[in-house]
């Protein structure tokens, strides 16, 4: 003969609270990180339901003196708790590994971009220096009154222009090979 027991609303509220909290922790990768819902998640849901059921059925089985059934509930409760804990830890480790791999890739891209910026700054400084030299030679060529001096200055301008273009070509080859 079973007697009617008044519902324990506090216990029911705590059960709902802890179940929702556990479910959130176990499925955070799906809820917040856009992971796909896999069969491992389904298995976790089933293990969570089975663990809760085994925990709730343990005491009624003890009271009814069905010891083998109570032992089975205890084993299921312990195994379910262990599975949920290890599956959650493994899933969190996988998410962290994925995040770490993405961070490493981003850092490598950032380092490559910085190397390109450094090379561009070096090329800019070289071009500025060559422009100052070219401007100085041009001013000297205009100021020189003699024809022979102009020829000498013109040959210096040509050699500076050839040297600059050969440096630019070698820089272009280096940037294409990188």
Any overview of this molecule?
The protein is an all-alpha fold. It folds into 2 domains: 9-109; 110-177. 88% of the residues lie in helices and 0% in strands. The protein has 5 helices and no strands. Helix 3 runs antiparallel to helix 4 (67-143) and helix 4 (67-143) packs antiparallel against helix 5. The longest helix has 77 residues, at 67-143. The chain starts with 8 loop residues before the first helix and ends with a helix. The model has no long low-confidence stretch (mean pLDDT 82).
The CA-CA distance between the termini, in Å, is: 85 Å
Rounded to an integer in angstroms, the radius of gyration calculated over CA atoms is 39 Å
Unreliable residue stretches: none
How many separate structural domains? 2
Written as H for each helix and E for each strand, in order along the chain, the element string is HHHHH
Query: What is the strand content?
Result: under 5%
Number of helices: 5
Number of strands: 0
Overall structural class, as computed from helix and strand content, comes to mainly alpha
How would you sum up the major sheet?
Answer: none
Whole-number mean pLDDT:
82
Helix content: over 70%
Pick out its properties:
single chain, 178 residues, mainly alpha, 2 domains, 5 helices
In brief, what are we looking at here?
With 178 residues, the protein is mostly helical.
């Amino acid at each position: 003969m079973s007697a009617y027991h008044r519902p324990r609303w506090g216990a029911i509220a705590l059960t709902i609270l802890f179940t929702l909290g556990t479910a959130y922790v176990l499925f955070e990768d799906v809820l917040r990180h856009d992971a796909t819902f896999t069969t491992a998640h389904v298995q976790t849901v089933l293990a969570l339901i089975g663990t809760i059921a085994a925990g709730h059925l343990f005491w009624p089985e003890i009271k009814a003196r069905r010891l083998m059934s109570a032992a089975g509930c205890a084993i299921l409760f312990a195994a379910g708790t262990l599975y949920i804990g290890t599956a959650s830890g493994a899933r969190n480790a996988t998410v962290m590994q994925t995040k770490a791999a993405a961070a490493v890739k981003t850092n490598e891209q950032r380092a490559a971009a910085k190397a390109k910026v450094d090379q561009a700054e070096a090329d800019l400084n070289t071009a500025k220096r060559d422009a100052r030299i070219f401007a100085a030679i041009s001013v000297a060529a205009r100021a020189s009154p003699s024809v022979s001096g102009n020829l000498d200055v013109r040959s210096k301008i040509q050699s500076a222009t050839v040297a600059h273009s050969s440096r630019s070509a070698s820089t272009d080859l280096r940037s294409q090979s990188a």
